[in-house]
Amino acid sequence: MVTQWPTADDDAERVPLTVVDRIKRYILINRLSPGDPMPTENELSDQLAVSRSRIREAMKTLSALDIVEVRHGYGTFVGAMSLTGLAESLAFRGMLTSHRDKHFLADLIDLRELLEVNWAPLVVERLDADTVAAMRALATTMVDLAAQGREFPVEDRQFHQLLVATSGNALVGQLLDVFWQVHSLVSETLGPASLLPETAQAHHAILDAIESRSAESLEAAIRRHYAPIRERMRRATDGL
Amino acid sequence: MVTQWPTADDDAERVPLTVVDRIKRYILINRLSPGDPMPTENELSDQLAVSRSRIREAMKTLSALDIVEVRHGYGTFVGAMSLTGLAESLAFRGMLTSHRDKHFLADLIDLRELLEVNWAPLVVERLDADTVAAMRALATTMVDLAAQGREFPVEDRQFHQLLVATSGNALVGQLLDVFWQVHSLVSETLGPASLLPETAQAHHAILDAIESRSAESLEAAIRRHYAPIRERMRRATDGL
DNA sequence: ACAAATTTGTACGTATGTATT
DNA sequence: AAATACATACGTACAAATTTG
């Protein structure tokens, strides 16, 4: 097995592995995949020779990182190792510090824009008509909702997921989705939404650019999409 | 049993908040900052009317996300909400799946390169001479170590931290550092390092480009820096 | 340097709630 | 509908670590 484990040189300094690490090692050694069942807490308690409470506390840690997934009354399974923990941590950080630290949301928006813009050439080249049609429907729904003064989080999130899916980089897709969630949660604390129609319309503009097959237009459209979002942020943080 | 959760100041909730959420709410409401002391486990157990084991399990979750920081025998404090949880989760995902899913490390490298390249113009414009000198010293150390066949993780990490610090985007700096850690950990499982001299020398080339004040050269130098890293990855995954 | 006090860490037993078959 | 397997919850006792006097 690849997992390096006490190789002669560290028996003086040898600190016993934590329960968390031993459970991780169990998953690694047994080559488990996401979704595979883990031993029950009682079995782990026996195998690792620690109490149930210790196992449970370790499972809470692993579960927070989505390394395991606990299904109440049924069992524990290897998790998908998604970025839900990052979302939770960042969202809390944003809610706690965005009053004092206006950079946080700004940095987040900059990152979102940068990552989306970066794949503009690829998107223009590869985005297929069906996906564009689906995105067009979402954009239309957004405009309708905005006209009624309603927000459109579900549509917006899915739109951006489809946009970045073309990149072929799964990690970026997951990261951007996390940033979307964090932005959505934190911006709620800044008061009611504003500039809804402008934001909704910006999605149509993005699709127009894609259909015009111009990477430059797409980049510009994406940047324009973030303008009203930044403007809203500016208004909110100015009023401190 | 369920002893109705008795905090009188908020009762609009249909489904009772989890212990984790109630502790988060405590931090939010009391406007605590990272480093501020939390109540002891016994106090929280009394205040929230749940057993200490429950409190401890919630603390494990919060601690995994660095929302609280627990110090044995001393107390619990509000955490820095760093990205350590992300690093742990991604590193484990990489170690578990990189054998089967070669995209993971590739996506990670692409992201690192993209983020560093993006701020090349700013770096060329703003990186001060002192920082460049410090980075030069690091690069020289790297070359020396490489010549002895030794690796240089500490120097490499610090080099890239200094490089991206210029961006002014703290979030990007933290993310890149996480990616560095994950890459470092996961690539260990691919076998011994290779192409060390090339990689070390690439850092000098980056500094040369910065001193030549050309954003284009810097971008090219950064991309060349990642070439031997990708090459090593290719060799490792080809041998599956 | 020592000891006491405080606080988190570990263990275990028992009872209860919950999802699946 | 019942049985089973499993996670959730509580309480107590003691161990280990850290600060403070």
UniProtKB/TrEMBL annotation, chains A, B:
Give the range the annotation lists for the signal sequence: none
Membrane-traversing stretches: none
Q: Does the keyword Mitochondrion apply?
A: no
Q: Which SMART domains match?
A: FCD, HTH_GNTR
Keywords of the record: DNA-binding, Transcription, Transcription regulation
Is Calcium set as a keyword in this record?
no
* GO molecular function list: DNA binding; DNA-binding transcription factor activity
Q: Which residues form the HTH gntR-type domain?
A: 13-81
- Taken from the record, one Pfam family name reads GntR
Q: What is this protein called?
A: HTH gntR-type domain-containing protein
Species for this entry: Tersicoccus phoenicis
* Taxon lineage: Bacteria, Bacillati, Actinomycetota, Actinomycetes, Micrococcales
